[in-house]
Amino acid sequence: MAEFDEYESLPTSNSTTHMIAGSMAGILEHCVMYPIDSVKTRLQSLVSANRSLGSVLVTMIRDEGAMRPLRGIGATVAGAGPAHALYFAAYEKLKVGFTSTGSAHHNYLAQGAAASAATVLHDGIMTPAEVVKQRLQMYNSPFRSMTECAIKVYRSEGLSAFYRSYGTQLAMNVPFQCVHFIVYEAMQNATNPERTYNPMGHVVSGGVSGALAAALTTPLDVCKTLLNTQEAEVLQRAQKTQISGFFNAAKMVYRLGGVGGFFQGLQARVLFQVPSTAICWSVYEFFKYFLTKNGLSDGGDGDKVTYEKQDTRMSGGSGAGYPINSLNDISSNSAIVGGVTLGAGHVLMKEDLLPTGSAASSALSAARALGAV
Is residue 373 part of a domain? Predict the structure, then answer.
């Protein structure tokens, strides 16, 4: 009997594991590439001279100190942990919930819908953190710390300042995450159809999906940066006290930078997203694998059940089986031919896997007594 890869048996209903893995992935994704993100924010400024990524980074370190590219990283950590935990847990749950039959890995419509819904939750946490982070990243920022920035912005502009770019953030991140997740899942289907733990495959799929999504949504990111930073010189040129709304931001970007203004920082954004999404997916998949292999994931109520053998299959009333990807795919099935029922509605084909553990042993023994196994 071939050894079953526990990594792919991770129950989709196990939100705790997805939240832990997602939180670690989000924090590492943003922290490792944070200096490039700081440069991208500077390059998207509508009042800065057109310079290269390298020259901005060198100037920042030379004139403002070696640690300047990391300024604001605390706000990112504070936001990225809970935001990504909620995001991945919601995505994993919803993509299966939106799939009526078959495998969620091949249902791109369900993946896109799940990514969109999860993005709404993610951005609700991350948008205020982005406001604080980007204000600290700007040249000549008047704020000395994350706490000082948050307090002064709240006192001078009110709570709405932290969500001024929320609509634009969603307008950017919904298509970004749809492209990102669909391309990632498609590449996994092509390069890793067995869905085993494959670090190199996760890195390549994550990097390609991130690059494509980043390039397509750069114009929206430029508008989001303007709404978050409210640069004093831009406001002075526009003779406004603040810029609100996506369309006003887009008009200001075009007025000051033309069509090219919408693609300021494109190179930095893609350069940031390629390793970021590669890191995010590889870390997420690793922790998902690690937590499962070490028995830290709980598949549901009652005794834990583990399984052996690859290519688990489910059969409907007609007796025709088809591959499944998690216990959730079969939890609602009530008709099985020659199968073994393991409680909680889980029905598995006897010839396709051998259940182990206290909760499964009774069912297996009964099935043997009946001659089914």
Answer: no
